[in-house]
Write a structure and sequence with these properties.
The chain is 78% helix and 0% strand. By secondary structure, the protein is mainly α. The mean pLDDT is 82.
């Protein structure tokens, strides 16, 4: 190994150690998965990665919506009222796919939508890809539970004092 490679290896190891100490091993594992999937160099801040991901997701969604609406317009003669209604419904269902209940579970999964269409319409979406994406999102996003759900469980299990302390802590934060 030459000196440049040794320097890069040392810098990478130091970065990994710093991330593990500051944010935990789980965060380091998430970071490594992201880098392996998209080949991102180490000097890009996480916030920039998240902003880029959000921007790309919005562009992809807008592209898909535009193509779907064009097909309805061009091939099926849909016009203003029907297209606006379709867009509202598409936005509503997209939002449902990205929303979580109070226990951190998705309200709706794309794979569930795809399975229904497969069973009822004979359309065969790429289920393996959809399920892989959902598993990766669950690992990357973790589970989030609402404060109200935690407080409710604490009170139900006889830990009202802890529930109250938690509420006060959050209110004063």
């Amino acid at each position: 190994m030459n000196r440049k490679e040794e320097k890069w290896r040392n810098e990478g190891a130091a970065y990994a150690l710093r991330v593990a100490k500051e944010k935990g091993v789980e965060h380091l594992e998430q970071d490594l998965r992201r880098r392996g999937a998209v080949g991102i160099p180490m000097n890009i801040p996480e916030k920039a990665i998240e902003a880029t991901y959000d921007m790309l997701a919005k562009r992809i969604m807008n592209t898909m919506k535009t193509v779907a609406m064009w097909v309805l317009y061009e091939e099926h003669g849909w016009r203003s009222v029907r297209l606006q209604r379709f867009e509202q419904q598409m936005d509503k269902h997209s939002e449902a796919c990205m929303s979580y209940d109070r226990y951190g579970q998705s309200y709706v999964k794309l794979s569930d939508m795809a399975k229904t269409m497969q069973e009822t319409c004979g359309i065969h979406p790429d289920m393996e890809t959809l399920e892989t994406i959902e598993k990766e999102n669950e690992k990357a996003n973790g589970k989030f539970v609402s404060l109200d759900a935690v407080v409710e469980v604490l009170e139900e299990t006889g830990h009202g004092d802890i529930a109250e302390a938690l509420k006060r802590k959050i209110e004063n934060a």
